[in-house]
Amino acid sequence: MAKYLLILFMLFSLPSYANNTLVFIHGYLGDGSSWRPTGIIYALQHNGWQDSGHLFPNGPKLGTIRPSTTKNYIYTVTLPSEAPLTIQARWLDIYLRNLQQRHPDNSLILVGHSAGGVVARLVMVAGKIKVKGLISIASPHLGTDKAELGAAISDSPASMFTPMLGLGAINRSQGLY
């Protein structure tokens, strides 16, 4: 709960002027809907932000853009969370280009949780999309011990047994480590 209060504090600390598009990026094994039960979207809506839709690999579910004095929009995205980071970054890049076309006068601000923060940072560093800001929450920008263990298991003969032990995500997520 404390991390969500911190997120709210950071988001409300953003400049109060208009024309921002806030993009929420989920973490490993999550999806864009992971953000909604936290209350963050609801809280932002009550402070002048417009929930404008969800972008996912099968196509966008875009909300209707209502007349707004602030022109501040919120989007959630779903990435293929078990895919390599470079694949996820390509998807995010596509989503962000779509949002730039939809809101050409807006600045992009990315909010990423865990691996979502790493993917957002990768897009900012390797991509050509101008991003005004990045808020990353619990993002392992320097890697994790668990990822190194997962890589060691997936590269060993033990990987044959991981699906039988309910650990199939280790093999499917090799590109993350």
Secondary structure tally: strands: 6
What does the overall shape look like? globular
Largest sheet: 6 strands, mixed
- The tally of domains stands at 2
- By CATH reckoning, the class of the largest domain would read Alpha Beta
Average pLDDT number: 82
Helix-strand makeup class:
alpha/beta
Share of residues in strands: 15-25%
Low-confidence stretches: none
Q: CATH superfamily of the largest domain, called what?
A: Alpha/Beta hydrolase fold, catalytic domain
CATH topology of the largest domain: Rossmann fold
- Architecture of the largest domain in CATH? 3-Layer(aba) Sandwich
The helix content, as a percent range, equals 25-40%
SSE arrangement, N to C: HEHEEEHEHEHH
Distance between the termini: 28 Å
The strand line-up of the biggest sheet is: 3-2-4-1-5-6
Helix run count = 6
Structure commentary:
The protein is 35% helix and 18% strand. The protein is an alpha/beta fold and 177 residues long. The protein has 2 domains: 141 residues, Alpha/Beta hydrolase fold, catalytic domain (Rossmann fold, 3-Layer(aba) Sandwich), CATH 3.40.50; 34 residues, no CATH class. A hairpin with a 5-residue loop joins β2 and β3. The longest helix has 18 residues. The radius of gyration is 17 Å and the shape is globular. The two termini are 28 Å apart.
Short description:
The protein is of the alpha/beta class. The chain is 35% helix and 18% strand. The protein is built from 6 helices and 6 strands, in the order αβαβββαβαβαα.
SSE layout:
Elements: H1 2-12, E1 20-25, H2 40-45, E2 50-55, E3 61-62, E4 73-77, H3 85-102, E5 107-113, H4 115-126, E6 133-137, H5 145-154, H6 168-172
Parallel strand pairs: 1-4, 1-5, 2-4, 5-6
Antiparallel strand pairs: 2-3
Helix pairs in contact: 3-4
